[in-house]
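re: that chain from earlier
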Amino acid sequence: MAKLPFDPSRARGDQFAGGLFDTKAQERAGSADDASAIESVAEGATPTPKPPRELTVTEFSDLITRTLDDGMRGSFRVQGEISNLSKRGHWYFSIKDAGSVLGCVMWQSDAARSVYDPREGDAVVVTGKVKYYGAQGRTQLYASRIEKQGVGALELRFQQLVAELRALGYFDESRKQPLPEFPRRVAVITSRTGAALQDVLKTAQERCPAVEFVVIDVRVQGPGAAEEVARALRAIEKLHTRLSIDAVILTRGGGSREDLWAFNERVMADAAMALSIPLVAAIGHEVDTSIIELVADQRASTPTQAVMRLLPDLAALDERRARLGRDLRNAMRWALSMKRERLLALASSSALASPALRLAQARAGVHQLEVRRETALTASLARERRVLDQLATRLATHSPVTRAAAARAALAMFGPRLTRAIAVSVGQSRRALVNLERRLRSAGPEETLSRGYAIVTAADGTLVRSIAQARTGERLDVQLTDGLVPVRVEPTPPKE
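^ sequence. v structure.
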């Protein structure tokens, strides 16, 4: 099948009318011959080959600018997810979807009027015009308005994975390992062609050249990068004992959210979680945070900082060694000085100068102790003798025979007095008893009955105190002083 001739109208589409292939635009660009050649191609004729027109960079930039101004007039509303957001008066950012990225700028005057404050990862609708910025060779969307649509797909995926791994304990500080104090060999997982590796090796050479590095070359961006890094981590976990690897640095330079997305994959987080030696992650810049940095034992903002955290500073170690040497020498000098002073004191001691004098002093001390002992023993015996004499005197004065005789005399004297006191007390008690008996009798019923009174009770034993209680024909008991008289109630005769 023969190749179809080039059709500029089909290539540009209706929306590009008046654009790059517009006759008037070509006339403005310069050559009418060029326009004729294009028209002949559109009619199917075979144009005569002509060499391309030479333009300066500024002229070509002006051509692109005019083409965009003519072909993309008016404002556009573009949907996408915000990334690489920078707010320095003006707002600089990109909007992206799964296939493309578009640079955007929003001037400070428009940003001040915006009611929405955008955040990294937000899904937005940006309204603005497309222009070409020749000074930097960039085509940008100059935004006049920005509206939020919701959380972007990548940001939502990131947040969901963070929540899942946090619930599983991947980010717990308790499971993270301390960095070795003096690592012997360190594995570096990164791209061999990246600037991050050169930063790591340069910093390590300056800081501590004695530490060896094993470089594992992997892709750090794009499809398959996460799987390559995960395989490298699993290989280190399997071989770190045989290779004497004490720690791992996983690093790459900065980039957009999409460039760093491989470090937000679950497969890499699982491999880092299973690693039994410390892992230091330095991905992107300080403002970026990836899943692997949250799982790693230590996070560094740059490759250089990762090396500085992991490797000891040779200069600092040398300074510490010198300081410890000075401290040790000062301690030895002080100890020797103290021993020398002690030796001089012993050398000038009188005991060492004259052992006989030292022995005589010891004998004098022993004699003094013996004299003190004899004096103390004599004084103690005298005290004990005085105590015995006092006890003997008390015993002779208060003997049991003397005390018994005194008790008999007291008994003989107090016996008659006790007998008289008992008789008087008995007489008084008897008279009191007689008086109480007389008073009791005078208050009793027998005394009352003896004066002619009687006690009347019913058959059930209740007292009859009034004639209202006596019913005709009822039997009553009358208690007199010398016995009980039964009676029966008769009717009362009428009064005359």
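Residues 448-488 form one domain.
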